[in-house]
Specification:
19% of the residues are buried. The longest helix is centred in the middle third of the chain and has 44 residues, at 45-88. By secondary structure, the chain is an alpha+beta fold. A three-stranded antiparallel beta sheet has the order 1-2-3. It is built from four helices and three strands. It has helices at 9-41, 45-88, 95-108, 145-148, and strands at residues 115-119, 136-144, 161-169. The chain has one domain (48-169). It is elongated, with a radius of gyration of 37 Å.
Length: 174
C-alpha cells in the first residue's frame, strides 16, 4: 500500500505565494482601473493649482530680489561713507573733494540721488580744511530707497531711506 503524500512545508509555501501573487495582480489591476477613472475627473487640476500658487511664489521671489538690492545698496553706501571719511581726515582735503569721491564711488555702482554730509562731533556741518588735530569728522551718506529700487515702490519700502555714517579723527600735524 502506498502512503498518501503529505505536502512538505516548501510545497505549502509555494502554493500560498502563488495564490498571493494572483491576488496581488488582481488588486493592482483594480487599483489601476480606479486610478484611471480618477485621472479623468482631475484633468486641469495641475493648471488650477499652479494658478493659485504662482502669484504667491513670484511675489516671494520679487520680495527677495528687493531685499537683496536694499542690502547691496546699504553696503555700497557704507563703503562710500568710509572712503569719504578716510579722505576727509587727511590734511589738505576740502569738502568738495570728499563729496566728489563719495559720488564717484556711488556712480560707479549705479546708485543715484545720494546726499553727502560732512559733520563734526556735535552734528554741525564742518569743513575738513579747518579741522584741527584729533577733531572728529563724520561723513553721512543717505539715499532714498525709491531711487535705487528696481521695482515700483512697495508700501513698506516707499518712504525708507538708507543711511550710512562713518566717524574718524583727523590726522593733522600739530
Amino acid at each position: 500500500m502506498k502512503q498518501p503524500e503529505v505536502p512538505t512545508n516548501g510545497d505549502f509555501v509555494a502554493r500560498l505565494s502563488s495564490a498571493a501573487d494572483d491576488q496581488q495582480q488582481e488588486m493592482s489591476f483594480k487599483v489601476e482601473k480606479m486610478c484611471r477613472s480618477c485621472r479623468k475627473h482631475r484633468r486641469g487640476a495641475a493648471a488650477v493649482e499652479f494658478a493659485i500658487v504662482a502669484p504667491v511664489f513670484f511675489l516671494m521671489i520679487l520680495g527677495m530680489i528687493e531685499v537683496g538690492r536694499a542690502v547691496m545698496v546699504q553696503q555700497i553706501i557704507t563703503n562710500a561713507s568710509r572712503e569719504g571719511a578716510r579722505l576727509a581726515v587727511l590734511p589738505g582735503t576740502t569738502a568738495t573733494d570728499v563729496t566728489n569721491r563719495v559720488e564717484e564711488i556711488l556712480a560707479n555702482q549705479t546708485v543715484t540721488g545720494a546726499t553727502v554730509e560732512i559733520l563734526d562731533e556735535s552734528g554741525g556741518v564742518v569743513d575738513p580744511t579747518t579741522a584741527q588735530y584729533g577733531d572728529v569728522i563724520k561723513v553721512t551718506v543717505s539715499v532714498p530707497f525709491s531711487n535705487v529700487s528696481w521695482m515700483p515702490p512697495w508700501k513698506y519700502f516707499k518712504d525708507k531711506t538708507l543711511v550710512a555714517s562713518t566717524i574718524m579723527r583727523t590726522e593733522r600735524v600739530q
